[in-house]
Design goal:
By secondary structure, the chain is an alpha/beta fold. The model has no long low-confidence stretch (mean pLDDT 96). It contains ten helices and 15 strands. The strands form three sheets. Strands 1, 2, 3, 4, 5 and 11 form a six-stranded mixed β-sheet that branches. A five-stranded mixed β-sheet has the order 8-7-9-6-10. The structure holds prephenic acid. Prephenic acid binds next to α1, β3, α4 and α6. One of its GO terms (cellular component) is cytoplasm. Its EC number is 4.2.1.51.
Length: 304
C-alpha cells in the first residue's frame, strides 16, 4: 500500500484530498507543509498531499516556498475540493461564551464576513491547520474552531454551526507530489507546472510569456513569490495546458531553459476537471514532426 504523507492532523481538508487520490493508501498526518514534503524527500513516504491554492484566499505560500526549495519533487495529480466549514466547540459551549476562535489563516479568511456578523467579539487566532484548531479546542486553548466538516468525526466536539462559507462556490486545489522522475502518462487533459527565475532585465518577463504564446500554450496560472535572498526579485510559478511529452511543451521548456536563470519542472499531471488541453492549429506533435522533417531535408540538400 502506498504511503501518502499529508498536511494534518486527522480531519483536515488535505486528508480528504489525500483519500480522493487513493482511498486505500496508508495516510500519514504531519503538522506542517514543509514536514510533509520533507517526508517525501527523505523517502519516508511515497507521495505527499498538500494544498496549493484556494479560490478565495489565493496561493498557499508555505506550499509554494517548499516546492521551490531543496531537492525538486514533482506533482503527479491534482484534486479540487469544494470548501465549506463547521464551527466546533466543546460540548456545553454556547455562541455567547466564545471569546476565541481559531483556524488556519486561509480558513479564517474564507469566513471573515460570517465571523464578523455572528461572532463579532471573538478574537481570531491562527492555528497550523483547521484540524489543529479542533485539537486546540479539545485542549482548552481556544473556545471554538473553524474546521472541515469531517473534523467532527475525529474529535469529540459539538458542531455549533455548519455549511459556513462567505463565498458559496469556494474550492481549494491540492497536489499529489512524488519523487522527481516519476512519470505520468499523457491523457490529453494534462497540466504542466514550472517555476522560472528570469534575468532582472527590461522585457524578460514579457519574453518568457511570449515563449508560451508563440506555441499556443494555454496558461492557467501565473504567480510570483519573492526570491527571499534578493529583495525586489521574484520567481514565477506557471501552470499551463499540456504534457511534457508533447512537442510544443518540450519546445517551450527548452526555450525557458535557454533564456532563464533557472527553471524547475514541477510535473505534468492530469487536470482535475478533465477538460481537453487547448492546442492551436500548427502546434500538434505531427506539425512539429513535419516541420523537423522539412528542415532536415533542406539541410541534406544544402550539404549535397
Ligand atoms: O487546514 C486544513 O484543513 C487544510 O487542509 C489547509 C487549507 C489551506 O491551506 O487552504 C485547505 C483548505 C481550506 O481552504 C483551508 C485550509
Amino acid at each position: 500500500m502506498p504511503r501518502i504523507a499529508y498536511f494534518g492532523p486527522q480531519g483536515t481538508f488535505t486528508e480528504q484530498a489525500a483519500r480522493a487520490f487513493d482511498e486505500h493508501a496508508d495516510l500519514v498526518p504531519l503538522s506542517t507543509i514543509p514536514e510533509v514534503v520533507a517526508a517525501l524527500r527523505a523517502g519516508a513516504a511515497d507521495f505527499a498531499c498538500v494544498p496549493i491554492e484556494n479560490s478565495v484566499e489565493g496561493s498557499v505560500s508555505a506550499t509554494m516556498d517548499t516546492l521551490a526549495a531543496d531537492d525538486p519533487v514533482v506533482a503527479v495529480g491534482e484534486h479540487v475540493l469544494p470548501i465549506r466549514f463547521s464551527l466546533l466547540t466543546r460540548p456545553g459551549t454556547a455562541a455567547a461564551d466564545i471569546t476565541t476562535v481559531a483556524s488556519h489563516p486561509h480558513a479564517l479568511a474564507q469566513v471573515r464576513d460570517w465571523l464578523g456578523k455572528n461572532l463579532p467579539g471573538a478574537r481570531q487566532l491562527a492555528s497550523t491547520s483547521t484540524a489543529a484548531a479542533a485539537v486546540g479546542v479539545l485542549d482548552g486553548e481556544f473556545d471554538a474552531a473553524i474546521t472541515a466538516p469531517v473534523a467532527s468525526a475525529h474529535y469529540p466536539l459539538t458542531v455549533l454551526a455548519s455549511d459556513l462559507a462567505d463565498e458559496g462556490d469556494a474550492v481549494t486545489r491540492f497536489l499529489l507530489l512524488a519523487p522527481p522522475g516519476t512519470v505520468t502518462e499523457p491523457t490529453g487533459s494534462d497540466r504542466t507546472s514550472v517555476i522560472v527565475v528570469v534575468s532582472h532585465r527590461p522585457g524578460e518577463l514579457a519574453a518568457m510569456l511570449t515563449e508560451f504564446a508563440l506555441r499556443g500554450l494555454n496558461l492557467s496560472r501565473i504567480e510570483s513569490r519573492p526570491l527571499r535572498a534578493r529583495f525586489g526579485e521574484y520567481r514565477f510559478y506557471l501552470d499551463f495546458d499540456g504534457h511534457v511529452s508533447e512537442a510544443r511543451v518540450g519546445d517551450a521548456l527548452a526555450a525557458l531553459h535557454r533564456r532563464s536563470q533557472d527553471v524547475r519542472f514541477l510535473g505534468s499531471y492530469p487536470k482535475a476537471d478533465g477538460s481537453a488541453s487547448v492546442a492551436v492549429p500548427g502546434s500538434q506533435d505531427t506539425d512539429y514532426e513535419a516541420s523537423a522533417a522539412w528542415l532536415a531535408a533542406l539541410r541534406r540538400r544544402e550539404q549535397e
